[in-house]
Amino acid sequence: MKGFIVDASYRIIHGKAYVSLFGRSEEGEAFLVLSYYRPYFFIKKSDLAKAQNLEDFDFEEVSLKNFQGHGVVKILVDIPSDVSSLRKMFEPEGIQCYEGDIQFSRRFLIDHKLQAFIEVVGDYDYQGDMKVYTNPELKAIQPIVVPLKLLAMDIETDSRARTIYSISLVCGDFKKVLIVSEKKLKHAESFVTEKEMLERFFSLLKELDPDLILGWHLIDFDLQVIKKRCQKLEVPFILGRFDTVSKITLKQGYFSRSRVLAEGRQIIDLLSWVKDTTKLDDYKLETAAQHFLQEGKSIVFTNKSDEIEEMYKKNQQKLVLYNLKDSELVLRILEKINLLSLFIRRSALTGLMIDEVKGSIASLDALYLRKIREKKYVAPSVAHSVKEESITGGYVMDSIPGLYENIIVFDFKSLYPSLMRTFNIDPLSFGKKGIKAPNGATFSKDIGVMPEIIEELMEVREEYRKKKDEVGRYAIKILLNSFFGVMASPLCRYYNLELANAITSFAQFFIKKTAEIIREEGYEVIYSDTDSCFVIAGKRNPEDLGRELEEKINKIIKDFIRTEYYLDSCLQLEFEKVYSKFIMPRLRGADKGAKKRYAGLVHGKLEVVGMEAVRGDWTPLAKKFQEELLMRVFTGQKVEEFISHFVKDLKKGKYDTLLVYKKSLRKPLKDYIKTTPPHVQAARKQKGFSGTVVKYVYSAEGVEPYETFKGSYNYDHYIQKQIKPIADSVLVFLGLKFEELLSGQKSLVGY
Question: Quick one: pLDDT at residue 748?
Fold first, then answer.
């Protein structure tokens, strides 16, 4: 039988630990694999006698060593919690424990080299409709097509989320709403009490048996509310495949996220997946549905909580259809953007479960632990140290502001991973003689683990490229781009600030060297940013010059690395594109050039980076004005009439729909005490405000919430704060000023 691992956990059977692998076969059957395995960790051989004086335990001689080259022994226990107990006993006595914090089921998958797709060989019994294998043979296989069963759900509640009115479920052909009602309603099952409705909800989960339960804001709201109501009404909160009560862990910090442990299933908040992959104005389901499906909810509310209550009292059939549509939208968005395929691919690359692959630290850990065991090493346990210093950033050159023609852009392909490969930057090789980074960190020349992982991933990415598998390529891109940041995080077991700074110091060195080579060739570099250089082509054909310089620079860098380090270069500078017209603005109120802010024309299409048109804290008015102004300047059109007419049209109310600011609250409204920024003022004026994104406008009286605004706009505010700064950032290069234009003192000509 071949299939996909949906969930990995463990069970204690007769005092012994069995890893539980739940999955779905390629034929669509649910399965469970139970494998007996002993939890373990390592200590140094030299600490064995001291440890034996503290406690009795089983141990095993192994031919493994720590990163410093000291031999270790394997400490074996019966159940996973025993690992934690022994660590608490050993570590205060100065006995360092290695790999003592690895989740037990993940440990099993790593040791057996299993990554998402498996073949199971052995006898089985049935438990309901599920095939159950005990201690079968397991083999890793290449990805196959597996028909995972998906269920989307959504709840509707009273205004204080203290009573659940209805729960919608969509799973394949099953589409139904459970509702507390005395009426017989279409597409619904009615219940006398909320308790009966909840009991039917959990019963349906067992009947439908989904692999993934999805929703929008599912964990932090829907399931949290359901759990509280279950506690109140004495209904077991069981989302998994067996009778284990499910646990919710709410998000505590930047590196953590809310999770639900539901044995045998994955609980997925689609909102968090979309946030990771798509930039939206806000992350309401309505906004996402309009963006991806060009279709929204069946009802758009002014004050949702009050209107839901009103609908429940007066039009329950309407509420049923609204509730059902929300669940349908979740599945349709998931299908439309192909995110499930991406996360399955990431699971296959790392061996992590679908709901874990977002974690960059866990992804690197899973790959690295597999590799070091092949090299006969053990990893340290996570120390959770406090990060006292900050990482050195990439080099960003002070730009030379101006309006330009024919700017060539060069970019290092996957710069950080390429540097790690070239200079063997790796936790295992760190601190050993052979290669010295510009920041003084040293690395062995014996190929380390990170370079091997990166090389293998790049080979797979190349295979995906040949097969035109864009999902696979993107999955690898995400992984490769995360490695640098992970090693700069104290939450990573390989955290090493000196190592991370070795990467950025090499990056700074080579981007500066690239600019130096270009200047020696007689061309001016107006800007460089972490891994890219912007060059004036002058009188040369920019396309020809771009290809010529690319070849020349790569050869010089390759020869330099060969001569200075006796290493083969993996660095690859690419001629990326030509901006036929280009603007590098000044810092506002200064002569210095801005950083990470510019715009240009590529094949007649406008590209804007870091400027107001692409920033969420500026209005749509600013975006429209800046884009149209830049296009006129770049295409040589007159701008005098455009600016004059634009301001006149603004004052006439033509652009009233574009005057809305959007800003997110970073903390609860009541916590804004020392300062009350405009969006906080607007939120406090809005009756029954909920959520985190505030929409507001400026009237003659000041800041007003957009949803309830019915007055006159303060057009002077928008002219001075939105139009003028954008206009002046361009007009300065034409020797003109916005105020002069409005007063009619000078005329403007096109560029």
Answer: 39
Structure tokens at 429: 């090789």
| Same-domain pairing of 110 and 257 | no
User: Measured between alpha carbons, how far is 162 from 206 in angstroms, rounded to an integer?
Assistant: 26
Q: Is 688 exposed, middle or buried (0-12, 13-18, 19+ CB in 10 A)?
A: exposed
Residue ranges of the chain with pLDDT lower than 50? 253-255, 745-751
Name the domain count of the chain: 4
Check: CB of residue 689 under 8 Å from CB of residue 306: no
Q: Is 156 in the same domain as 281? A: yes
- Report the chain's C-alpha Rg in angstroms: 30
Residue 201, token pair as written in the block:
């909800």
DSSP 110-162: HHTT--SEEEEES-EEEETTEEEEES-EEEE---------EEEEEEEE-TTSS
370 falls within a domain: no
Query: Range of 108's domain?
Result: 2-140
Joined tokens for residue 607: 């590209």
Q: Does residue 595 fall inside a structural domain?
A: no
Give dist(CA 731, CA 645) in Å, integer: 16
Cα distances (Å, whole numbers) of residue 638 to 402, 622, 629, 742: 19, 19, 10, 15
Q: Taking the model in full, what pTM does it have? A: 0.84
The one-character DSSP state at 708 is: G
Q: d(Cα 227, Cα 249) in Å, to the nearest integer? A: 12
Distance CA 242, CA 256 (A): 27
Which DSSP state fits 265?
Answer: B
pLDDT of residue 747: 43
Structure tokens at 226: 């359901």
As given in the structure block, the two tokens for residue 657 are 């729909």
CA pair distance 52, 708, nearest whole angstrom: 72
Report the CATH number that the domain containing residue 276 is assigned in CATH.
3.30.420.10
Q: Given this model, what pLDDT does residue 112 score?
A: 96
Burial of 712 (0-12, 13-18, 19+ CB in 10 A): exposed
- In terms of Cα–Cα distance, which of 286, 253, 530, 296 is closest to 410? 530
The β-bridge relationship of strands 247-249 and 30-36 is unpaired
Q: Which DSSP string corresponds to 317-369?
A: HHHHHHHHHHHHHHHHHHHHHTHHHHHHHHHHHH---TTTTT-HHHHHHHHHH
Q: Which residue from 13, 16, 19, 18 is spatially nearest to 77, judged by alpha carbons? A: 16
Residue 218: DSSP 8-state? I
Question: Are 97 and 161 members of one domain?
Answer: no
Whether 590 is in a domain gets the answer: no
Dist CA 213 CA 129 (whole Å): 19
Distance CA 181, CA 600 (A): 60
Nearest CA-CA partner of 40 in 95, 92, 106, 107: 107
Q: Is residue 353 part of a domain?
A: no
Report the C-alpha gap between 88 and 91 in whole angstroms. Answer: 6
Please indicate, yes or no, whether residues 653 and 573 belong to a single structural domain of this protein: no
Q: For the residues of 449-505, what is the DSSP string, one character each? A: HHHHHHHHHHHHHHHHHHHT-HHHHHHHHHHHHHHHHHHTSTTSTT--HHHHHHHHH
Pairwise CA distance, residues 259 & 537, whole Å: 52
Q: Which residue has the tokens 């349908």?
A: 328
Going by the DSSP 8-state scheme, the letter that residue 638 receives in this structure is -
The pLDDT of residue 386: 53
Q: If we measure between CA atoms, which residue out of 278, 284, 272 comes closest to residue 358?
A: 272
3-state secondary structure of 207: helix
Query: CA separation (Å) from 214 to 285, 598, 614?
Result: 13, 40, 31
Same domain, 103 and 252: no
Q: Give the model's pLDDT for residue 664.
A: 85
Q: Which of 85, 119, 140 is the last residue of a domain?
A: 140
Q: How many CB atoms lie within 10 A of CB 175?
A: 14
pLDDT at position 487: 85
Which amino acid would we find at residue 82? D
| Contact criterion met (CB below 8 Å) for 109 and 116 | no
